[in-house]
Write a structure and sequence with these properties.
single chain, 95 residues, alpha+beta, Alpha-Beta Plaits, four-stranded antiparallel β-sheet, globular, Dimeric_a/b-barrel, DUF1330 domain-containing protein, DUF1330
Length: 95
């Protein structure tokens, strides 16, 4: 079953996070991920607000987790770790 990769992000260093974004996109695409939302308009109804929200669709939970653990994504993530505060989850789509 398909899955959604959902990230809630507060960017603290735009330059470093830009390096992350440049590398993360191709890593996500290489694992079958396609972006549904990236930093668009949102309405926070509950919980901690993060001004950047990203949703990508993957073929499966396993594909999303494999992407996260891949060398390419980990290289991208090395630029985001000190440049942002984030939560990331993968949720299986139940249709």
């Amino acid at each position: 079953m398909a899955a959604l990769w959902i990230a809630h992000v507060t960017v603290t260093d735009d330059d470093a996070y830009g390096k992350y974004a440049k590398l993360a996109g191709p890593a996500i695409a290489a694992h079958g991920g396609t972006f549904l939302a990236r930093g668009g308009r949102f309405v926070q109804l509950e919980g901690k607000e993060r001004p950047r929200n990203v949703v990508a669709r993957f073929p499966s939970v396993e594909a999303a987790v494999d992407c996260y653990n891949s060398d390419a994504y980990q290289e991208a993530l090395s630029h985001a770790r000190d440049a942002s505060e984030r939560e990331l989850m993968v949720v299986e789509i139940t249709e």
